[in-house]
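Lab notebook page, bench 4
Experiment: in silico fold of construct C2
Operator: M.H.
Input chain length: 199 residues
Purpose: comparison with the prior construct
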Amino acid sequence: MSASNLHSMSLAILNEYFGYDTFRSGQQEIIQSIVSGKDTLVIMPTGGGKSLCYQIPALMMDGTALIISPLIALMKDQVDTLTVKHIPAALINSTVSMLDQQIIARDIVQGRIKLLCISPERLQNPQFMSFLKSIHISFIAADEAHCISEWGHDFRPAYTSITNIFKELGRKPPIIALTATATPEVQDDIIQQLDLNVS
């Protein structure tokens, strides 16, 4: 897709689903990077529009985007908000019944879900990891990515399981890592831990 077509398409989605006419500073470049299949590290303050940087590419690309977030309540709010906007999103975590998980899994396999939100701990579930092999993952978004670094606040060891997806799939989907704040040391650690190719 050419840069001008990509810009037009992303702008149309921004307007249709989110009601905005223009992107904030940096959003368009981040979206272009992800849609082009590149790993991307995003440092953007809370309220700066980080979520749009992966929600819009998810709607533009084939397959399902895997959104990894440490906060179940935030995840549920996000999915509820997307659903109201008629964006096909779902979440799988410990609060979702087994029957509902099976329905969500079926919908993903049939291409009906564009964004799937999970906690990093879900990646330690062998059944779920096996399920990932049956679907096409457009890209992986690691939200609150500072959690992968021992030097970042809120360290979550389960975040280090993200690279296991590559081994399970036998390929490495593009990754977008997002956080509000990160020291240079934490940024370097995020890049190393997630094997980001951002040079």
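Observations: The mean pLDDT is 93. The chain is about 40% helix and 15% strand.
Next step: discuss at group meeting.
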